Amino acid sequence: MTTRYNPSISEEPRYQVTQPIDRKAQESILDWLDRMGRLLPHAIDNSQVEAISRKDKGQ
């Protein structure tokens, strides 16, 4: 079996207190997803818009 280096995975002893993750940037998860190109716009069609309008009007 080949051992590969992956910096995002580390191993700590089971009963040792772990160190908190250093947060370098004060950005929200939504900002991070957008910056990484993972945040996609939600597209709805006209039938969904009409259904939402009817629900808002109580019909």
From TrEMBL:
Question: Pfam families per the record?
Answer: DUF3134
Q: Which domain of life is it from?
A: Bacteria
Q: What is this protein called?
A: DUF3134 family protein
Species this protein is from: Leptothoe kymatousa TAU-MAC 1615
Upper lineage: Bacteria, Bacillati, Cyanobacteriota, Cyanophyceae, Nodosilineales
